[in-house]
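User: Predict the complex with dinuclear copper ion.
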Amino acid sequence: MSFQDRIWLTTLLGIAVVTLGFLYVISQSGREEDPKTVQARSYALRRWVFGFLIVLGVVVTLASLRPFPIPLQRGAPQAPQVVHVIGRQWAWQMDTTIVRAGIPVSFEVTSADVNHGFGIYDSNDRLLTQTQAMPGVTNRLVYTFEHTGKYRILCLEYCGLVHHAMIRDLDVVDGTEDES
Ligand code: CUA
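Assistant: Here is the predicted structure with dinuclear copper ion placed in the model:
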């Protein structure tokens, strides 16, 4: 089942639960009951619902933070490979476009003019990682490529007329090969 199918199914289940809630309320209307009993029951229900939501929130937060896709960047030691990147209207200036797989690469990213977005895409056009290219600031992005192949760098922040053409190829070669 695709990711989208799962989201679709989850949405349908949610709609079904809300519908059942409405049907229950409709089926209960017109019944004569002591208001105190009704209130006590609704408070109990509310406690259960909020308790459930708190537990759900904690579980979802922990489960979704664990596979957080971007490794810790702060205070990272100097990576074995360093690529200096300057974004400018409208090109990426880099001291190399060849990096090795399996070895951390530190992209030191800045800008010569306006803000750009430095995004690395794999050959299936899937965004792997990104950082901002900002004038006067160098952002360090440490990433380890798992596979060799053709990658692309695209600009992720609208930066003027030719923003869409800020594309640069990045070759990831075997870790044992020499960088040239
Ligand atoms: Cu640079 Cu958009």
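Helices lie at 3-28, 35-65.
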